Amino acid sequence: MIPNPLRDPRDRRLPRVPEPCALVVFGITGDLARKKLLPAVYDLANRGLLPTNFALLGFARRDWEDQDFAELSREAARQHARTPWREEVWERLAGNVHFVQGSFDDDDAFDQLAATLQDLEGSHGIGGNAAFYLSIPPAMFPTVLKQMERTGMADSTPDRWRRVVVEKPFGEDLPSSRELNELVDSVFSAQDVFRIDHYLGKETVQNLLALRFANSLFEPIWNAQNVDSVQITMAEDVGIGGRAQFYEKTGAARDVLQNHLLQLLALTAMEEPVEFSAEEIRTEKLKVLRAVSLPDDLETFAIRGQYEQGWLAGQRANGYQQEEGVDPESTTETFAAVRLGVETRRWAGVPFYLRTGKRLPRRVTEIALVFKRAPHLPFADTDTEELGNNQLVVRVQPDEGVTLKFGSKVPGSVMEVRDVSMDFLYGEQFTEASPEAYERLLLDVLLGDATLFPRNAEVEASWAVIDPLEEFWAGTTPHPYRAGEWGPRAADEMLAAENRRWRRP
Amino acid sequence: MTTLWDTTGSAVVKELAAQRRTGGAVLSGVALTLVVVADESRVAEAEEAATHAAESHPCRILVVVRRQLEAPAPRLDAEVLIGGRLGPGEAVVMRMYGRLGLHAESVVLPLLAADAPVVAWWHAAPPEKLATDALAVFAHRRITDSSIAEDPLAALRTRAADYAPGDTDLAWTRSTAWRSTLASTLDSVSGRRGEPVAVQGARVEGDAANPTAQLLAGWISSRCGCPVSVEDGGRKPNSSGVDSVALQLDQDEEVRIQADRRGGAVISQPNRPDATVALVDRPLGDLLSEELRRLDRDEPYSEALEAATGVSGLAGRSPEREHVWFDPADNGSSSRKRAAAKTADA
């Protein structure tokens, strides 16, 4: 960034505002664009975080005029925006909203897109900077990327930057993800590719780094000498919604385990980065992902499940195979639990239990460090019967915060020790105050800050963990569990085999 | 909510503890204690703002209302609220009558959250010397609002004369949106040129009697080393007091930001079309929330204040204040209101 006399590093009231730029969204009519992207753009504008010269360009097949698109964007932003609606903010934004109609294999449409972008450089003063958001199925990536290459839209030069934002899934196994990465990297240079994992945009996930590396209290016990095991859970109470077609091919392991859970594992297990910068943090995460090991006994320690009909939150829920658009014989998993190891000096011998599932009793994501029991207890056995392991739980969502669980004396004349929990609810607990993950990530893309985006090597290292599991599961039938249960019994047995049990989040 | 009439500080502490025990799900994380000193006429406004700020900064809110200093018998009335009108956290609204108002700290000190920073905010005319209010002495950060004084510019000069690191003023907070827009406009110019920009002069148009306009001018002057004056414009600007800002740059260029009176501003710069950005008049709660984000000293403010008032050496002052006993009754002025009005005149 060029020095600016009005900018002062001590002046932390001034927000980081991106340079003048355009945001081009492919697949602007899709669900994600309407529910997340457009509202995030409005929220950023409302908070004054968009550059003075900014343009939003939508590309889709529909035959629309700029006004139609502006109307749809307005409705979407209004319905899903986090910050209060201010018509005047939108009006100003709407003047910078444009629409280009065309299909992805249509050369003319892309020529027109390139021309529109060129026009905006002058008319909106965006200075040639643009971020392309691929909110489209991965199958269409090659077509779109080739078009961008052909029209020269993807080239960053010293005068301007061009960035691309890719959503998960980043491929469906190691070879396909490599292919995708090569393709994206051949069109854009590696530092201009932003892979969105919206979990990393969450406040608590970033707080995990602060918790670990800003305090002196936790890091000394953050290792195999003190930690007995780590449990990372991401549970959803919803089913697959209308995404049967996508989900049938994907399943819980590819949908969640490969990206969100392994990223949370990496942040939990990583060493201290040399400095708090994108490059250093990604380097440390990559080291962890490369050190992840799979259990030898996959039969016991890699469990997948599929929900059956059941009751959830007082309502009857269909089984997965009965969901619309799902093969009645489907063997796609909706639940996955696996025991991983991290082969480093810090973590040798500590199991990392990861689980994710749909139609579980409640929506919750948390990271729990379960500590070893005290080596010696000077109390009578009966006094400490109810004492469990100390735990440190980072609640990612909902109720973002930290819980510490430890033993305390039960008030009374006898010595009895039982577990109590101490809660820290972060100020950002009030959802309206905490920026949506997309808002934060979109801003980071426009600023060029890649700290919260996984690098392609991380994606590939993650697939290297998932591929053997998928291979093992191929041709098997998932364990059934009732909707509204915490997964199949086999998942409980997996921990019981090592005398542990899942924490109920 | 419990209201304690004619009570004591210890009873308030007990009641707060009792409500914490019986309140069920209480907010357990407290980042700071916010002490609000308000006039009776502004209590509702202050409560609303504090509640809003507490949403993003979990805090214990202690509202101190001093009334009828001349009342013969000191008296304390207190409302203890947890999860009520003042948001999900803990809050105590205290009305102090008579001479108790001069010893408000005796009630407030035991109510502070343990070892958490204390922020004091005067939503009233603040004392001429903050150190005469014991609440300012133990606060880590002190927020005043020059704009509510009868003579805001005199109030700003008073703040400069009395400044200690850790002080801040909401008149300064109101300038953030303008400052941010100016800084990003210069980014845009230097981005186009590919080289740094130098500011050679500036003109702020608006309400010259508005402390925010003065601080904005002071800030530009302190950053760019050129004198900047506030000229009275023809139109009545919003609460920031600024209608437009023009910066003269090197290479004979000029950028200009003009408020459009609809919550936005138009940016004009060379070789670029005019652009409109949001520049809204923020509610008090937002301003307070911005102040609570950071609790360390605010150097850019002290530099802007120096430039705006001509008082120098602010940054070098000690952040510690020592309590100065001050009794308005000694000055022959029996009401606190008149003492406050004097502040503004000074």
TrEMBL record, chain A:
Classification via PROSITE patterns: G6P_DEHYDROGENASE
Active site: H260
Reactions catalysed, as given in the entry: D-glucose 6-phosphate + NADP(+) = 6-phospho-D-glucono-1,5-lactone + NADPH + H(+)
GO cellular component: cytosol
Swiss-Prot/TrEMBL keywords: Carbohydrate metabolism, Glucose metabolism, NADP, Oxidoreductase
Binding locations of substrate: H198, K202, E236, D255, K358
EC code(s) of this entry: 1.1.1.49
Segment forming the signal sequence: none
Pathway(s) served: Carbohydrate degradation; pentose phosphate pathway; D-ribulose 5-phosphate from D-glucose 6-phosphate (oxidative stage): step 1/3
Domain Glucose-6-phosphate dehydrogenase NAD-binding: 24-207
Biological processes annotated in GO: glucose metabolic process; pentose-phosphate shunt, oxidative branch
Single GO term (MF): NADP binding
Residues at which NADP(+) binds: R61, K168
InterPro entries, per the entry: G6P_DH (IPR001282), G6P_DH_AS (IPR019796), G6P_DH_C (IPR022675), G6P_DH_NAD-bd (IPR022674), NAD(P)-bd_dom_sf (IPR036291)
Pfam family, one: G6PD_N
Residue ranges of domain Glucose-6-phosphate dehydrogenase C-terminal in the record: 209-503
Keyword Secreted: no
Regions annotated as coiled coil: none
Family named by the database record: Belongs to the glucose-6-phosphate dehydrogenase family.
Protein role: Catalyzes the oxidation of glucose 6-phosphate to 6-phosphogluconolactone.
UniProt name for this protein: Glucose-6-phosphate 1-dehydrogenase
Organism: Blastococcus haudaquaticus
UniProtKB/TrEMBL annotation, chain B:
Chain ranges of the Glucose-6-phosphate dehydrogenase assembly protein OpcA C-terminal domain: 165-305
Domain of life from the UniProt record: Bacteria
InterPro entries tied to this protein: G6PDH_assembly_OpcA, OpcA_G6PD_C, OpcA_G6PD_N
Disordered as annotated region, ranges: 308-346
Domain Glucose-6-phosphate dehydrogenase assembly protein OpcA N-terminal per the UniProt entry, residue ranges: 50-160
Name of the protein in question: Glucose-6-phosphate dehydrogenase assembly protein OpcA
Source organism (scientific name): Blastococcus haudaquaticus
